[in-house]
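Summary for the funding panel

The consortium committed to producing paired sequence-structure records for every protein in the target list. Below we show the first two records in order, beginning with the earlier of the two.
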Amino acid sequence: MVGYCPICGKPVYFGEKKRSLGRDYHPLCLKCQQCQRQLTPGQHAEHDEKPYCTNCYMKTFGTVTGD
């Protein structure tokens, strides 16, 4: 079964996917929505289903959840 990237909306095939927090991403799509830094699967926070690095999440939303 092919999943769809929550960032770009395009299909994510098995050989290219980065699975993080229950979603499949393209490797280049899994980046912080604020600073654009590439993220490691499972090592980031989310807000409104968008990934953020821990630093940007703390600055913007105050506390870390979803790690």
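The next record, for a separate protein in the list, is shown here:
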Amino acid sequence: MASDDGVTAGLSDDELAEMYHLMLVTTLADERSAREAKAGRLQAAFYPVRGMEAVCAAMGAVLDADDKMVSTYRNLGDALAKGATLRSIMAELYGRAPGMSGGKGGPMHLQDQAVGFTATTGIVGQGLPLAVGLAMATQLDGESRAIVTTFGDGATSIGTYHESMNFAALWKLPIVFICQNNQWGEHTAIADYAPDVELAKRAAAYAMPTQRVDGFDPIASTRAIREAVERARAGGGPTFLEFMHYRLTGHTGTADFSYVPKDELAAAMERDPAPNFRRWLAERGIFDDDALTEIERRAQADVDDAFTYAEASPFPDPATIDSDVFADPEFVRSLNHD
């Protein structure tokens, strides 16, 4: 960990325990989902979040139920951070009816309006204009909430990224742009598609506060997100945060990632967020080994429960095939009868 001795970003012991729990659940569920994807038991592709757990835990510690989030398809940790249940997430990945989107959307379409997990987009960069629209609505309605949108480093080269940043800065919208820079745009290293790999520097051109943050450090991440969220809620306008970490697995749960330089991956694995946070908590005497072991036991039990629940849940009723779609039901039925 990179935090100074004694500094916990104002987090209570209960909040630190919950952060460690969320990181563990994300890691364990991520690794098990990848195995299930390789075994062909999921109904949709799975996009791992390994390496991003610290930022997800920080969002969970800072964001309120009233804040809204628009995420990307690499969203397991984002959804948990915003308050979605692991049961509903896994049921969706298995294509089961109790899933977040009724088992019909998969990771590309996770959403839970009850907790402010407003939308997920499967198209790179397309979540930003949705979040900007939510931020404009928040401003017009005079509400005090933050809109958060998460995206990968590759999205910063998409046209809608630049349009969204410009619009948010011009209107001083209450939005936090969270770039989860994992160093890879699918199978392309960032240096091979970006002439300047310091994305916060690029964002600064839009005259908004920007910051590059150690994305392996949950305490530093919490400080940065809290400051940006409080600025947004207070009417101080947008912030761009670039969290530096590394994708610890392939682009998808089944993808080969032998193209990743072995020395880079080994160095990144040395900073694996959950094990390093455990060590940090223990070294500072915040929790003893028994307390940490209990958090780990609870995390494993929660993951086991969610997968058991998902596998045992029913598939969607075929009669609902033409619901939840942007089309006239009669027209859809006519197609099915041809």
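Regarding this second record: The radius of gyration is 20 Å. Residues 1-6 have pLDDT under 50 and may be disordered.
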